[in-house]
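Progress report, Aim 2. The chain analyzed during this reporting quarter is listed below.
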Amino acid sequence: MAYSHFERLSALDSSFLDIEDGTHHMHIGGVVIFERGPVATADGGVDIDAIRTLLEGELHRIPRYRQHLRRVPIFAQPVWVDDPHFDSSYHIRHTHLPRPGDERQLKRLAARLMSQPLDRSRPLWEMWVVEGLPEGRFALITKVHHCMIDGVGSVQLSGMLMRPTPDRPAAVDPPPRWIPRPEPSPLELLASELAHRIVTPTRAIAAAALAAANPAAALAGVRDIVAALGASLGAGARSASPTPLNVPIGPHRRFDWTVADLEAFKAVRARHGGTVNDVVLSVLAGAFRTFLRRRGLDPSGLDFRAMVPVNVRDAQSRGDVGNRVAMMVVRLPLEERDPVVRLHRTVAETMQAKRSKQAAGTQFIESLSDATFSTLMVQFASLAALARPFNVVVTNVPGPPIPVYLHGARMLGAQPLVPLFANQALGIALFSYAGKLHWGFNADRDALPDLHDLVASVEHEIAALIAQTPIEGADPVAAHI
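Predicted structure tokens for the chain:
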């Protein structure tokens, strides 16, 4: 039999394909800004060939970036296969802002690029090298489909390209020649999928036999699963309050960002309790309070909730591509005026959400969908969207605590982007890097023409909260590029 290769997508990865349509683009990404560095050219541009060579030299470490999708006959289960026509020049692109470019122009360019879906006939990623920024700086705008990777995984993989010192990479042997593995035939794909579905009942029987040998432990395990599943389904069945953030959206986006002092957030956490993410959520509660009041809503009567993805990677899956997240819904206390009291109430809300085991419940649904039908996860996501269990997604991804470099150019910051789901006009992603906390705001262009006002409210709330926790030398809202 001829050798062929393919990899089956998990149920969670598949769901990001199936819920995508013409208005909900399921790619994650970001805008990464670098100083001038050795990649600058004499005319003030960027040596795109040097950057492309560096990226091409690392692709053999990330096979997924040279694979595209196929569907299993009858079942339509997606699988990854090597792309025999892979062309890095299609994915690594070069553009520039009209000099002298500024931050506003970069935001608008990023929004336009993020408004365009990825081509599913090719590997599902793009990287745009953007020159023309002040002082010879340049940016990378990245787009990667969520079915390929999650936020934590993207940081781990981008670490392969970055270096902890400004030294330019020394000359090394060229990477191994890439030879795409043959694609499986439709019959091979169908046979493999049938085998996968036949093995599942066998595993269930084996698990039942093991449970019979230790009924007390089995009963305790069932109780835990039922409790977690009940918490997850309960959170998904209750509707959050309707707001201007929860309306049908179109395909076009706005993208904005701000930068804050991470050490100041840590000092607030140390003084008042909770986690850095609790401080983030309390700041957002204050900002949404102001923003929605400006839109004519009374925040004291709102049940406003954030969906917070939880990283569930373990030591075995730390370097894997694909998604390793569970979902947790947290109520934000918009009714509270005082920033410190609001933080204490936010900590209580997140503790309650964690005790409810919502994340474990969504993990169980993902596992069940993997073992049975991947469409189960899609149906769960669709029902959740109809029920509107949350108003906004807020995800926080830890990055390197020290400066890193791309081909000798220091990375100044990275503004992350999370996709928008049905009836969700805003998604907020955060990325910590070298003592700063970078906030990325992805919004529907028509639903949030006043996105900048929300960002300004976030900056105001950061300053208000930190003002009650004085820190010598701290700059609550850091300067942009």
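The CA atoms of residues 227 and 357 lie 8 Å apart. DSSP finds 13 helices and 15 strands in the chain. These observations will guide the mutagenesis work planned for the next reporting period.
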